[in-house]
Amino acid sequence: xxxxxxxxxxxxxxxxxxxxxxxxxxxxxxxxxxxxxxxxxxxxxxxxxxxxxxxxxxxxxxxxxxxxxxxxxxxxxxxxxxxxxxxxxxxxxxxxxxxxxxxxxxxxxxxxxxxxxxxxxxxxxxxxxxxxxxxxxxxxxxxxxxxxxxxxxxxxxxxxxxxxxxxxxxxxxxxxxxxxxxxxxxxxxxxxxxxxxxxxxxxxxxxxxxxxxxxxxxxxxxxxxxxxxxxxxxxxxxxxxxxxxxxxxxxxxxxxxxxxxxxxxxxxxxxxxxxx
Length: 276
Known about the structure:
Blueprint (H helix, E strand, L loop, with lengths): L18 E4 L5 H12 L3 E6 L2 H14 L4 E6 L5 H15 L4 E4 L16 H28 L4 E5 L6 H4 L5 H4 L3 H21 L5 E6 L16 H4 L1 H7 L10 E3 L26
Parallel strand pairs: 1-2, 1-4, 2-3, 4-5, 5-6, 6-7
Helix pairs in contact: 1-9, 3-4, 4-7
Protein name: NAD(P)-dependent dehydrogenase (Short-subunit alcohol dehydrogenase family)
Family: Belongs to the short-chain dehydrogenases/reductases (SDR) family.
Organism: Allonocardiopsis opalescens
């Protein structure tokens, strides 16, 4: 499948020269985030497991807008050695990291009923969606601390909201994905814990809910485009010094609509905080 073009937006002096890393960025929402941050004037490292696909994506993003500086870095979030190598590469080149977007994620269970999900599947989901984000964040922490007002964005989902899952009338309560939902709930908790610890370093840590986007994660059944889903995480990755931290921001419904509506075409609550 051909990835859609990432629309170029004007660079800003406040972000020009900043350094960003986006994991799982060779396709989908991650690719769109990388393009948006590059348009702001950031040098963006596009992290991906597959060297051929990652190199191709970085080259295509750069070709779409000549002013962009997008560079591939091999990064498998389940492999601490590649995270350490990526940190070393970025550190040697720049000495700091201004923005980290932990975008890499999987939904390995499909339609398997929760009580039939095996521990191997649960471990696989947590390795990428939870442990991977912690691995990369910890590897990049020295570089984040070396920056002024660095930002960390964890790509979550409204499906990880315990508040909404406990509401029988909400769509989230009906989406019983044991691996994915529980992993995103864990990531939300990690977001809050890191936000509290790193507040004193001036590092902002937030969670983003991109909405129900058409990506490989859901077989392209979503009602929003990957480009639309990139808007909130890209904004959080570009926050100014003193911006919000410990927040969960994005669409309020995984389908982009209210429970009572028969159409999933209307996007509501854009930019609203999502309850933990």
